[in-house]
Amino acid sequence: DAVLFDSPNVMYFARTAGEGKVKTVGPLYEGQSYGIALTQGSKLREAVNISILKFMENGQYAELYKKWFGEAPQ
Question: How far apart are CA 6 and CA 28, in angstroms?
């Protein structure tokens, strides 16, 4: 049997409730991008952008991703 599903969800399931029952195989089929919506002209935009950039640059994103999904993001 096989299934195609959102990669982070599948990787988390394979490491938790599905451990020993399912496994992920092969490369990522298709990458998806996510965003954060703010109202136009929001005063939060710059602070949110800076926070995301710092989160990515200082390694926290990769660290949390690996903790919850088992491997570093690509």
Answer: 10
